[in-house]
């Protein structure tokens, strides 16, 4: 396999740091489109977006816990679990968004200047305030699939806490979890495969480059 040119390596490295933001944007767009529904006892429920599902689940469970509607002990436990998952959905999404935006902005600024410039190193320092090390950068990628798994988690709770064993979950197109998992793997793979190129091209956001003294 021929070695990539200098220009191609630099372009791929730029893209790899922009990928998390692109994946996050794709997730948000898909999550805002009605595309999932549940079937129970041969009856299809309303088709919802992922955001609407989280919002409705939170509102219904919150109403049960506040006594706005009667609920059994199982329903109360179910409500606590679902409320926790709904809050986790937003926390994971926000934390992922912070990392993705920080990587996109910092890389765009840093790579616009020579590697040893004050501006490039300043952008990297700012990025490290939001995502201090590479391990955290990679782990934060895994937060988005947690958000994407909310429908599957809700289905599990319906089946095993409320006894709706026959309930099934359906999507128009691929599930949010499958799509997100594929995109996250692509983002992480591109980052690791380009580590040596980042070093060679002096385009690593986790390294500060200094000019050699004559």
Query: How would you describe the shape?
Result: elongated
According to DSSP, the number of beta strands is 3
| Rg, Å, rounded | 22 Å
Mean pLDDT: 91
Low-confidence stretches: none
Instruction: Give me the secondary-structure category.
Output: mainly alpha
Task: Note down, in words, how this protein is organized.
This protein has a three-stranded antiparallel sheet, with helices on one face. The protein has 214 residues and is mainly alpha-helical. It has nine helices and three strands; from the N terminus they run H-E-E-H-H-H-H-H-H-E-H-H. It is elongated, with a radius of gyration of 22 Å. Strand 1 and strand 2 form a beta hairpin.
């Amino acid at each position: 396999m021929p070695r990539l040119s200098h220009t191609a390596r630099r372009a791929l490295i730029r893209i790899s740091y922009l990928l998390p933001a692109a994946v996050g944007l794709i997730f948000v767009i898909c999550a805002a489109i009605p595309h999932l529904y549940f079937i129970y006892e041969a009856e299809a429920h309303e088709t919802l977006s992922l955001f609407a599902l989280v919002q409705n689940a939170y509102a219904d469970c919150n109403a049960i816990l506040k006594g706005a509607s009667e609920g059994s002990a199982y329903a109360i436990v179910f409500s606590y679990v679902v409320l926790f998952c709904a809050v986790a959905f937003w926390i994971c999404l926000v934390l992922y968004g912070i990392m993705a935006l920080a990587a996109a902005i910092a890389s765009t600024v840093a790579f616009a200047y020579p590697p040893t410039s004050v501006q490039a190193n300043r952008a990297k320092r700012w990025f490290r305030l939001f995502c201090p090390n590479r391990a955290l950068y990679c782990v934060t990628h895994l937060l988005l699939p947690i958000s994407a798994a909310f429908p599957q988690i809700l289905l599990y709770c319906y089946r095993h806490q409320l006894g709706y064993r026959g309930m099934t979950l359906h999507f128009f197109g691929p599930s949010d979890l499958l799509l997100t998992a594929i995109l996250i793997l692509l983002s992480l793979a591109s980052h690791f495969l380009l580590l040596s190129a980042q070093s060679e091209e002096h385009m690593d956001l986790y390294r500060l480059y200094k000019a050699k003294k004559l």
